């Protein structure tokens, strides 16, 4: 749910659809105290939140926003930024929290460099751990390097891989 949205194509659900080209967007001249609430379905651990604002950092029109978590019938503010937002806000909380809802409220803004006076959020992501510490297969693959095999080389040394990963050379 949200405080406002302009048309069906900018409905609140667009901020959690996994599509970074869609967005939740408020009506024009709706830039103060506009909020969007993400229902997590049940109580979950929350450690990190990523907010992908529509405007590029150089064109940003959001000058203040906060994040609140809902648990046991009330909201707790866990983060507030009172300077101009960047396009991708990566919020690592100081501890694990339990929440069933996440609420992002734009407290204030201006037209930015484009004179656009509304809120646009392409995506909101909520994680139960610091994503910087998560090892993905793509990250592991990018670290694998080795020598060149020729007719006299019978062995290729590969760097140690993180637990749970293995590498296979197919020739």
Task: Describe the structure in your own words.
- With 171 residues, the protein is mainly β.
- It has one helix spanning 137-143, and strands at residues 24-25, 34-53, 62-71, 74-81, 88-109, 120-127.
- Strands 1-6-2-5-3-4 form a six-stranded antiparallel sheet, with no helix packed on it.
- The radius of gyration is 21 Å and the shape is elongated.
- Strand fraction: 35-45%
Query: Structural class of the secondary structure composition?
Result: mainly beta
Helix content: under 10%
Radius of gyration (Å): 21 Å
How many E strands? 6
> What does the largest sheet look like?
6 strands, antiparallel
Q: Distance N terminus to C terminus?
A: 53 Å
Strand order, largest beta sheet: 1-6-2-5-3-4
Order of helices and strands: EEEEEEH
Give me the secondary-structure topology.
Blueprint: E1 24-25, E2 34-53, E3 62-71, E4 74-81, E5 88-109, E6 120-127, H1 137-143
Antiparallel strand pairs: 1-6, 2-5, 2-6, 3-4, 3-5
What would a concise description of this structure say?
The chain has 171 residues and is mainly β. It is 4% helix and 41% strand. The chain has one helix spanning 137-143; strands spanning 24-25, 34-53, 62-71, 74-81, 88-109, 120-127.
């Amino acid at each position: 749910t949200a405080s406002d949205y302009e048309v069906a194509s900018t409905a609140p659900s667009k901020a959690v659809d996994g599509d970074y080209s869609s967005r939740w967007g408020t009506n024009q001249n709706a830039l103060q105290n506009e909020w969007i609430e993400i229902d997590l379905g049940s109580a979950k651990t929350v450690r990190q939140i990523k907010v992908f604002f529509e405007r590029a950092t150089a064109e940003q029109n959001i000058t203040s926003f906060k994040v609140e978590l809902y648990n046991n019938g009330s909201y707790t503010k866990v983060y507030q930024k009172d300077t101009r937002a960047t396009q991708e806000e990566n919020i690592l909380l100081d501890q694990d929290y339990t929440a069933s809802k996440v609420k992002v409220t734009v407290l204030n803004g201006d037209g930015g460099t484009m004179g656009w006076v509304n809120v646009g959020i392409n995506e909101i992501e909520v994680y139960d751990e610091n994503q910087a510490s998560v090892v993905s297969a793509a990250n592991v693959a990018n670290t694998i390097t080795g020598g060149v095999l020729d007719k006299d080389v019978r062995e290729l040394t590969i760097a140690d891989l993180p637990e749970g990963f293995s590498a296979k050379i197919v020739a």
